[in-house]
Amino acid sequence: MILKLWFSIGTGFGLTALIGVTWILIWQLFLSSDARLSNLFSSLLFGFSPSLRISMSDAGYLFISTLVSVSVHEFGHAIALASEGIQLEYIAVFIAVLFPGALVAFDYDLLQALPRLTSLRVYCAGIWHNAVFCALCGLLLFLQPVILFPFYMHAESPLVLEVASPLSEFLSPGDAIASLDGAAIHSVQNWMEMTALLDKKILQNSSDSRYFEGFGAVDSRKGYCVPNALLEDGKNVLLAKNRSVCPEDFTAFVKIYCFDPSKSVDMDGEDVDLGRKENALCLNTKDIVNLEKCDGRGKVKKNGSSCMCSEDESCLSPVQFPDLMWIEITYSRLYSRECLQLRSSLLDSNTSDAVQQTCGGTFIFVGDMISMVHSVQLTEYQPRWGIFLSKYLPNKLEKSLICTFHISLALALLNSLPVYFLDGESILEVALSHFTSLSSRKTRKIHQVCVVGGSLVSVLAFLRMTFINFF
Question: Which residues are in the Peptidase M50 domain (predicted)?
Answer without folding.
Answer: 62-447
